[in-house]
Amino acid sequence: MVPASWCWHPSRDRRLAAGNAAYLAPAGMGHAPVVVLVGAQGQIYARTARLSERIVSRLMGFRLDRALAAGAQPEDTAPLFLRARHLVSPTTRRTLARTLRRLLDEAQAQPVRRVTPPLIRGRRIAAARGELEALADKLLSPAPVAARGVAEAMLLLTDGTGPLHRSGSAEDLRAVAIAAAHDLDT
Q1: Which is nearest to 139 in space by CA: 100, 81, 83?
Q2: How many CA atoms lie within 13 A of 154 on its CB side?
Q3: Which residues sit opposite 53 in a β-bridge?
Q4: How far is CA 64 from the centre of its chain?
Q5: Where are the domains of the chain?
Q6: CA angle 6-175-4, nearest 5°?
Q7: What pairs with residue 24 in β-bridges?
Q8: Which single residue of 23, 48, 131, 173 could bond 163 by disulfide (Cβ 3.0 to 4.6 Å)?
Q9: What is the DSSP secondary structure assignment for residue 39, as one 8-state letter?
Q10: Could you tell me which of 159, 149, 5 has the C-alpha nearest to residue 76?
């Protein structure tokens, strides 16, 4: 069981589990997405997502990913809920895993002489190969995953100031990959 996190699982529809964890229906079911939120007094309620909230979740994806990776709970706001729903969808998880595997394959391929330095750090990827493969495997697993871990994987690939893209990054690629894989389960 994944406590206090938002998950998608093919055998479950919208249902609340212990600890305020919600199992989400796959994206595209119904006309407008339903969001499950926790009110000020701790009551759980569901409602249809507003168009403005859906737009914010798309346009502010990077910022919402950062919030989720930092530990924000998806039930706090509708945009966070919608972003978490998107992140844990099988399509997004498959895309992230494929991207990780493609990076691993490219890092292993024979280096090509370049005039400019590569944007992706091949040596770092090769050094963290095992951790990145484990992360890709967990993303491809049919088991439910926590949005926090998927958000961390998304940031690993998309954040230009992170350890994958920048040699001066304070973060270690291995440590980030291990943390993301761990947070997929919590």
Answers
A1: 100
A2: 28
A3: none
A4: 10
A5: 6-87, 90-184
A6: 15
A7: 8
A8: 173
A9: -
A10: 5
> Which spans in the chain are helix H?
51-59, 61-69, 78-87, 90-108, 122-127, 129-140, 147-158, 173-184
With tokens 């407008």, the residue in question is 32
Amino acid sitting at position 20: N
Beta strands in 31-71 (DSSP E): 34-38, 44-48
pLDDT digits (tens, 9 = 90+) for 112-141: 665 545 556 677 888 899 999 999 999 999
> What is the residue-averaged pLDDT of the chain?
81
Per-residue pLDDT of 42-65, as tens digits, reads 889 899 999 999 999 999 999 999
CA distances from 62 to 56, 82, 96, 154, 156 (A): 11, 13, 15, 9, 11
Phi, psi of 101 (to 5 degrees): -65, -35
pTM of the model: 0.78
CA atoms of 20 and 42, how far apart (whole Å) = 10
154: tokens are 């998304």
